[in-house]
Write a structure and sequence with these properties.
By secondary structure, the chain is of the alpha+beta class. Helix content is about 30%, strand content about 30%.
C-alpha cells in the first residue's frame, strides 16, 4: 500500500482504519455513500464564516503520527461526550493506537491549541488528488464552540494551500443525523455506483 494505490481506492469509495482498508458491502443496504468536497469551487456560508472567525485563535501544528497521553485523554472525553454507548467510548490505548496511529500512507496528526491547551486533534491522509479526513476529536466541554465545522474549513484551506482538488469526508448516511453536517459543505460530490455526482442533484 502507498499513497498512489490508496488514492485510487479512496476514489472508488474505500476508507482506512489503521492498516486496514475497507468498503461497506451489505446485501440489502446501500446507505453508506462516499462524499467529497469540491475544494476549488467551495464557497463558505455566512454561518461558516462566523465559525471561521470565532476560532481563528486556535493554533494548529502538524506532526507525524505519534501517541501522547493528552491526545488519548481528549479522545476518551470526546467519545463519552458525543458517542456514549457506541462502543468506541470503551476503547483502550491499544485500540486507539490501532485505529488512528497506524498507517501505510502519508498521514499527519494535527494538534489545535488554545492558550497552550489542547482543544482538538485531527488525523488526515495526503492523497494525490486531495486530503482524506480520517478522524477528528475535540473538547466537548466548550459551550458555543463549533470545532467540527472549523476543522473541516481548516482542512479545505489546507487542500487549497497544497493545490489539491478534493477533501474526502468518508461516508454519509441520509437518515443518520450525526452525519448531516457533511451536506453543509457544498459543492459536495457523492459516489453513485462508479461515478462521482453532485450531491444536490441526486440526493436532495
Amino acid at each position: 500500500m502507498n499513497a498512489q494505490v490508496y488514492g485510487k481506492l479512496v476514489q472508488a469509495g474505500f476508507r482506512r482504519s489503521g492498516h486496514y482498508t475497507y468498503r461497506p458491502r451489505c446485501e440489502h443496504c446501500h446507505a453508506c455513500l462516499s462524499v467529497r468536497v469540491q475544494v476549488r469551487n467551495f464557497s463558505s456560508k455566512r454561518s461558516q464564516r462566523r465559525v471561521w472567525k470565532k476560532h481563528q485563535h486556535l493554533l494548529p501544528s502538524q506532526h507525524a503520527l505519534h501517541y501522547k497521553a493528552a491526545h488519548y485523554a481528549l479522545y476518551q472525553r470526546y467519545q463519552i461526550g458525543r458517542h456514549a454507548g457506541g462502543g468506541m467510548d470503551q476503547d483502550c490505548r491499544e485500540q486507539y493506537r490501532n485505529f488512528l496511529l497506524q498507517s501505510d500512507v502519508d498521514s499527519r496528526l494535527i494538534e489545535f491549541h488554545e492558550n497552550n491547551r489542547l482543544r482538538m486533534v485531527s488525523i488526515i491522509d495526503v492523497l494525490p488528488d486531495g486530503l482524506s479526513s480520517v478522524y477528528t476529536f475535540f473538547d466537548t466541554d466548550m459551550p458555543g464552540a463549533s470545532f467540527g465545522t472549523y476543522n473541516i474549513l481548516w482542512q479545505i484551506e489546507l487542500c487549497r494551500e497544497l493545490g489539491l482538488d478534493y477533501l474526502y469526508l468518508g461516508y454519509w448516511i441520509k437518515n443518520n443525523r450525526k452525519m448531516n453536517y457533511k451536506a453543509n459543505f457544498q459543492p459536495l460530490e457523492v459516489l453513485i455506483g462508479n461515478r462521482w455526482c453532485l450531491f444536490d442533484q441526486v440526493l436532495l
